[in-house]
Amino acid sequence: MLRKCFPMVALAVLLSCLPARGAEGMWIPLFLKKLNESQMQSLGMRITAEDIYSVNHSSIKDAVVLFGGGCTGEVVSPEGLLLTNHHCGYSQIAAHSTLEDNILENGFYARNRSEERINPSLSVTFIKRIEEVTDQALRGVKPSMSAEKRQEKIRENLERIRKEADIEPWQNVEIKSFFKDNRYFLFVRETFNDVRLVGCPPASVGKFGAETDNWVWPRHTGDFSVFRIYADRDNHPADPSPDNVPYRPDHYLPISLDGFSEGDFTLVFGFPGRTDEYLPGIALEQTIVRNPIKVGLRDIALNAWQKEMEANDTIKLLYANRYVSVANAWKKWQGESLGLERTRAVDKKTAYEAAFADTLAKYPAMQQAYGHLLPDLYAAYKELLPYGMAYDATSEYNYLSDACALMGLLGRYRSLLGKQQADSARTEALRQQALERVDPRRITIDSKVFIPLTEFYCDKMPSGFLPQEVDAALEGFHGDMEALADSLYASPLLSRDGIEGIFAAKDTTAFDLLTRNDPTYVFFRSVVENYNRMVAPRYSEVSGRIDLLMKDYMKAQMEAFPDRAFFPDANMTLRASYGQVRGMQARDGLAYLPQTFLDGVIEKYVPGDREFDLPEKLIDLYRKKDYGPYGENGRMPVCFIATNHTSGGNSGSPVINADGELIGLNFDRAWDGVMSDMQYDAEICRNISVDIRYVLFIIDNDIPHLCLAVVTFMLSCILITRMNL
Ligand code: ASP
Prior knowledge:
Layout: H1 6-17, H2 32-42, H3 49-52, E1 64-67, E2 71-75, E3 81-84, H4 90-95, H5 103-106, E4 108-109, E5 117-118, E6 124-132, H6 134-137, H7 147-164, E7 172-178, E8 183-192, E9 194-200, H8 203-206, H9 210-213, E10 225-231, E11 245-246, E12 265-270, H10 281-311, H11 313-342, H12 345-362, H13 364-370, H14 373-400, H15 402-418, H16 424-437, H17 440-460, H18 468-476, H19 481-488, H20 496-504, H21 508-515, H22 519-560, E13 575-580, E14 584-587, E15 590-592, E16 595-597, H23 598-604, H24 616-624, E17 637-642, E18 654-656, E19 662-669, E20 687-691, H25 692-702, H26 704-724
Antiparallel strand pairs: 1-2, 1-6, 2-3, 3-10, 4-9, 5-9, 6-8, 7-8, 9-10, 10-11, 12-13, 12-18, 14-15, 16-17, 17-20, 18-19, 19-20
């Protein structure tokens, strides 16, 4: 029955895979002209692909940077001023905060250049040029080669390409694989290590709504921060130095205060981190099984940390950065599972796979080459599942428990001693990390999390995977977890002196003498060792096989559906996602409007609340309706949603209008469509951005000094742009 109506189903499935009104996809800038320009223009874009990415003249790409390791930023002035999200600058803002000068809480604006704050480990990277190097990368690679030989050959080739790349002394090269290792691209980059904090709003604006509102629409967060890039006198990258001067970009983004309407074109240009759009259905099914393990463990830690943070301001600062990064993925995974279930993503994949199989069946050569792929992938995923669950449970446990992570660090020191490689730099780095973990405040909190975390971990480890030592310890205390916790956390290893003692050990014999009979070391090391012996090797072996199958499955999909426009999965390289400002039908009877206003911020206001408090000044401005040039018909726009296909890493990306002007900063996605990393659905996937008018309104009003400098500057840029037009 199903088989008979197949051609119709196949057509419908295939159509649903085609990019819906230009929304799906994270496109390589190099091919915008060929693949996307006409569709972008049909969606309203008035600039050209060449205005976005060009190697012949300055273009929008010259204003966009990879910010730190995992965000995007954009240059908005001829003197290197950079905008990104508040949550992207969060760790720098937190690092500059003390109880006496709490800029996280109160906000901060440098009143002059000398007040801008240096961030020792922050860098930004511009992309100067992209080249496809697939042929060179695969030269000499033969189908008959084993996976290892193939990898080795490719590695050799990439090394040569890197060495031979035609770059300036201040540039660097990165080569990345695309389409699951089927194609390779080279990026010529310029990386700047002197990036100073210029300003940020108070957390009550920049993080308004906090965890409750994260990943949710309607949204009212002023999620921005301001930095400045510094360069040497030749405008080239340089390490932080007082001699450096503000960077002069090849292009900076003009800002539009004109607003937009539903249906207007939007381009998000940035560095999406990781997506997996081409997986088989079973992988999505297993995501729904595995996510709750990670979510459950994080639930426990976050609840405990939050109580401690609320009770003590020092703890609040100490845990601020850790809390937000743990909470971000914790909430995302929940939305992702819900979205996959609600959109019946697995059923859609099943239908797609049926269409794929049917196409293969029509072409014997394809059937011969690719017919085994899906059955093999399904078999491999089945094999992976228990290891995947053990992998998730252990890596989260280790990530959330300081004592466990600490014993992991000590184990690494021991193996350096064993290989007689305990050279001072590596040892010192481990020692510093260990000392950080034994901060008595952290250890006290860790001891409180131990019982529920360990119980959950034991419960979720698939049968046969739990370390014997953990079992033995539980038995030894007859299930009395309190007594077990007391005994483990009494260890001298969980103190500064204990750590110094361990790092004074200069060989494995001395190390073993100090640790062998320590129950804490034995207990937590067993978690790590068990993972290293029982879980990780098999997990990576099966994952490696899956990767190889996915490489061929990707190629096979592209051959089976030659009319479908494929875009590569995100891999932290520069991509263009285009769409339109658009509300959505969230549920039966519930529609989302595309824009929020300050009225909504005030509606959510809860005085003194951890998440929904507001600065007095903002409430005052609202009462007076004093919005200056930023308001629209007597209201202050705050955030908006659009159909751009974005991911983590796109945080801070510029949202650019049809004329190439900045209208907002992308910072999140709406709950209903968070599964877009695995399956984009144009009906319900929406990216969330903060309106540039709200950003300027906040800067302009918070601390008049700097703000006047910055805003006057930005306004003059707007005027200059208008005059040029
Ligand atoms: N809020 C997200 C992040 O933290 C951005 C996204 O995934 O859309 O990276």
